[in-house]
Amino acid sequence: MTSTKWIIDPTHSEVSFKVKHLVISTVTGYFREFEGAAESSSDDFDGAKVSFSAAIDSIDTNQKDRDNHLKSADFFDAANHPKLSFEGAISNDGGDYKLIGNLTIRETTKEVTLDVDFGGVAGDPYGQTKAGFEIEGKINRKDFGLAWSAVTEAGSVVVSDQVRLLLSVQLVKQA
Question: What's the pTM value of the predicted model, to 2 decimals?
């Protein structure tokens, strides 16, 4: 069977992360600039090869000082590591989808497994074929060298080590 190439439609996709702040609330951030592709030889995307990258300078948590701190050497070090990347594949075990591959942040690469909800394939009003996915998982930021930490006077951790990844992705089939 021939393979089909797909690319991320950035206008219909969202890449976000959530992290606990002071253990009592959650801060949400977004990567506003990203790109990715998939190559699949089956209609259900089983075995599809996936690549993705996001520009660190595009981090947006709706608070400029926090964004600048995240871009600094304390966290992502955008000046020296301008992108994060992922290379992997989708597996479909009877409708239980996983995205398994290597996530690279700050030149540190770790294997991650993310849960995938495959929304299906549909045509849009412009004659394009689209595929939709909701992707979710957790990573430990310190595993990737994002080690900045602080504790309040009362002993609360300022930023959790655990980061939730939430991606809503729409792919466009390439001719």
Answer: 0.89
